[in-house]
Amino acid sequence: MTLPAKDARVNWVISSKNNEEVTSRYDLWAEAYDADLQSYGYRSPGIVAGMVGRYVAKDGSPLLDAGAGTGIMGEVLSVLGYQDITALDISQGMLDVAERKGVYSGLKQAALGEPLDFPSGHFGSVVCVGTLVGGHAPPSSFDELLRITRSGGHIVFTVRTDVYHGGGFKEKQEELEGSGAWRLVESTEPYVSVPGSNQPEGTNMIFVYQVG
Ligand SMILES: C[S@@+](CC[C@H](N)C(=O)[O-])C[C@H]1O[C@@H](n2cnc3c(N)ncnc32)[C@H](O)[C@@H]1O
Q: Whole-model pTM?
């Protein structure tokens, strides 16, 4: 397997058919990922940072960066003064790049959508950026993220608009709200996350939920 041309990389990972494929594609992309995302004009970490600043107290509670990748979000949160951030990702190659940044207190290779090896209520809040997209983590990921977040904590995430409406996210988010598992605090309109990446329909939305 070889890395496709830069303009084709977002669509290449989004078209992954299973966890094995998405993992091997990100392992291959890992060393070039930061430079590519910077050249695409990646906007989500800055917007998510605004949301985190609105709702997540800097009280030292552990934070989970779910689907942390190379740690772009962790770097921003660290500059903002958030501490004790754990990176979780399915790709060890991406986590290896994240580790070199020195902003995470822990790194865990694991798949969202499967049981997570953290105690219930362990994290004060969770961020999940760029990972709820086609071919990546499924809507059922929220079940474990909710279990490991303390009551009153926040879960802040981006979701691609196409999978929100057509990939079961909208239904899952509403079901969890109906059951009282979480309550919607704020959401954004769709925005273009990677304007320079040549991906079709590449809009995302951000949701902030408070855990019940
Ligand atoms: C577009 S990158 C986003 C990385 C980082 N959050 C950022 O904003 O740059 C998506 C990440 O999700 C990870 N990923 C894909 N499927 C996953 C899953 N089921 N569980 C955990 N991580 C997953 C990939 O390995 C990749 O690092």
A: 0.98
Residue 113: CB within 6 Å of ligand 1? Answer: yes
Integer Cα distance of 33 and 51 in angstroms: 24
Element (H, E) at 5: none
In this structure, the residue with its CA closest to atom 19 of ligand 1 is 137
Is residue 126 situated within a structural domain?
yes
Residue 1 lies in a domain: no
Distance, in Å, from the CA atom of 179 to the CA atom of 174, rounded to the nearest integer, reads 9
CATH of residue 123's domain is 3.40.50.150
Cα distance from N-terminal residue to C-terminal residue, the chain: 44
| Closest Cα to atom 15 of ligand 1 | 136
Pocket test for ligand 1, best of 18, 23, 43, 90 (most atoms within 8 A of CB): 90
Per-residue pLDDT of 136-169, as tens digits, reads: 999 999 999 999 999 999 999 999 999 999 999 9
Full domain range(s) for residue 102:
6-211
CB 26 near ligand 1, within 6 Å: yes
